[in-house]
Amino acid sequence: MEQSIIFFDIDGTLVDEKKNVQPSTRAAIEELKRQGHIVAIATGRPQFMFRELREDLGIDTYVSYSGQYVVLNGQVIYTNPIDKRSLEQMTDIALKHNHPVILIDDEEMKATVPDDEFVAQGFGLLLNYVSLAAPDPLFYQKGFVYQASLFCSEEDQRLYDEIFPALSFIRWSPISADVLPAGGSKLEGIRKITEKLGIPPERQYAFGDALNDMEMLSGIPNSVAMGNGLPEIQAVAKWVTKTNEDDGIAHGLKLAGLL
Length: 259
Hints:
Blueprint (H helix, E strand, L loop, with lengths): L4 E4 L14 H12 L3 E5 L8 H7 L4 E3 L4 E4 L2 E5 L4 H13 L4 E4 L4 E3 L5 H11 L19 E5 L2 H10 L3 E7 L2 E6 L4 H12 L6 E5 L5 H6 L2 E4 L5 H6 L2 E2 L7 H8 L4
Parallel strand pairs: 1-2, 1-11, 2-3, 11-12, 12-13
Antiparallel strand pairs: 3-4, 4-5, 6-7, 6-8, 8-10, 9-10
């Protein structure tokens, strides 16, 4: 069997609602490795927020920050930080409108405001991870920010869409949107890996469930949407599997002919 590469989103895909990896998923990943395939991650999470998961599953190739920080076999091969001038202008406007912002570099994240309930709610529900320490609205000046999260309504987001064509705003909850460089996506990050490895499209696979998976699932021919995924995500995928709570990864790999 020729070597393929399989990219898995994390939240809503690789892990269940309690952020655990199902036994069937573990077994499937081990079988893929045994067959000689490459198992990789493609996530919106910062790389420091899934270090334990990578170590647990033995995965050292991944696309993080929705494509802005790419690692192949444990080595960083591509980064795409957000323009500092755009971040400065965006955070200034957000502060004036009482819209909290999370700024994320390669090691930590900082909020622009202290103890905001929407920030705690958003990150607590999605990642079970709320550790922002003291607020620092000028955090972007100290290094490279690869992703930000803007906390506002979808209606309020339109203001930012109009003002910042160099930025891309992707909703991940009713109260928040990821902020990326325009054109940045998981698909672009994946291409950095597949081009370097010389793996053709017909041997590329991807699993996802949310809006930040749209480009990935529509751009990779062998795409699998989770049964719990959004309808628009299921519409662009080649296959729709069971949910992340019902052995969806293992079932999807069978649909794709990899198991």
